[in-house]
Amino acid sequence: MSPARSVASTLITVAPTGAESAKADVPALPTTPEELVETAVACERAGAALIHIHVRDREHQPTLEPAFLKEAVDGVREATDLVVQLSTGGAITDPLEKRLTVLDADPDSCSLTCGTTNFGDGVFLNPWGFMVDLYRQAQEREIVPEFELFELGHVHALRRLIDECGLPFGGKVHVDFVTGVPGSMPGTPQALLAGVAMLPPEVTSWSATGIGRAHLPIVAAALSAGGHLRVGMEDNLMYARGRAVVHNSELVARAAELATLMQRPPMTTTEAREALSVKD
Ligand code: KMH
Ligand code: ZN
């Protein structure tokens, strides 16, 4: 896929919670079902079309318990038209078998990280067998994967996955570059564009996110290079130098404004469903 290909509109994904920040440290983090739904509604209004969800339990701790996942999927579906994506990455302490059961909640989309990577002081495990199992189960259940690429080697692993297992349900291949995780691919335009240049031709769309201070440079680079955007408190807790994010929707609103200035206004949820070929 050519990085210069003209892309008319911008898919804005919001990743509002993640598994890494503690509610006690970041009270604005949406961790309860009510906060998640309120966030989803506000972010849809601000221009998001897809939500990447990590669920928390009643003590605000990351969980992959099926009842909590289902509650989150149902709640967001009832209140919005957002494409609902569940994280299968969970937290780095989550066992692989448990991460596979995320698909039981029947989201529109699931994340699928294309390899193991450094994750700060820890390791985010994604062995080949796990990737294949997750991919095949997503194909069978008609759930559209979003391929998460933390490393340039992950782009090559995606190539291998498509060669061995074929295309995802719906035939579209959407990837997301996660840049700026300490120890992984840096959050620089140079690294992002190197990844874009390596994408297999089957890729139909790509987005990018920059962790922490890489957030705005990666937004600008992705918009310039024909990419889509992922924003949210999973990846970035600061709105500007010295000013914390108060609500996820302000990150979405700023991304939507920048995208509009770049003549690539936010995609509607209907357009996003079509672009990603999620099931009706
Ligand atoms: N929380 C990270 C260990 C994903 O959602 O698939 C993994 C992650 C990627 O956030
Ligand atoms: Zn995530």
Task: Looking at this protein, list some descriptive labels.
280 residues; alpha/beta; TIM Barrel; eight-stranded parallel β-barrel; two-stranded antiparallel sheet; 37% helix; binds (5S)-5-amino-3-OXO-hexanoic acid; binds zinc ion
What topology does this entry show?
Elements: E1 12-14, H1 33-46, E2 50-53, H2 66-79, E3 83-86, H3 96-100, E4 109-113, E5 117-119, E6 122-124, H4 128-141, E7 144-149, H5 152-165, E8 174-179, H6 189-198, E9 205-210, H7 215-224, E10 228-231, E11 238-240, E12 243-244, H8 248-261, H9 269-276
Parallel strand pairs: 1-2, 1-10, 2-3, 3-4, 4-7, 7-8, 8-9, 9-10
Antiparallel strand pairs: 5-6, 11-12
Helix pairs in contact: 1-2, 1-8
Bound molecules: (5S)-5-amino-3-OXO-hexanoic acid and zinc ion.
(5S)-5-amino-3-OXO-hexanoic acid (KMH) is lined by residues 18-19, 87-89, 91-92, 111, 113, 119, 124, 148.
Summarize the structure in words:
With 280 residues, the chain is an alpha/beta fold. It has a single domain (12-276), classed as TIM Barrel, CATH 3.20.20.70. The chain has 9 helices and 12 strands. The protein has helices spanning 33-46, 66-79, 96-100, 128-141, 152-165, 189-198, 215-224, 248-261, 269-276, and strands at residues 12-14, 50-53, 83-86, 109-113, 117-119, 122-124, 144-149, 174-179, 205-210, 228-231, 238-240, 243-244. The strands form 3 sheets. Strands 1-2-3-4-7-8-9-10 form an 8-stranded parallel beta barrel, surrounded by 8 helices. Strands 5-6 form a two-stranded antiparallel ribbon. Helix 5 links the parallel strand 7 (144-149) and strand 8. Helix 1 packs parallel to helix 2 and helix 1 runs parallel beside helix 8. It is globular. The two termini are 27 Å apart. The model has no long low-confidence stretch (mean pLDDT 97). The structure holds (5S)-5-amino-3-OXO-hexanoic acid and zinc ion (ZN).
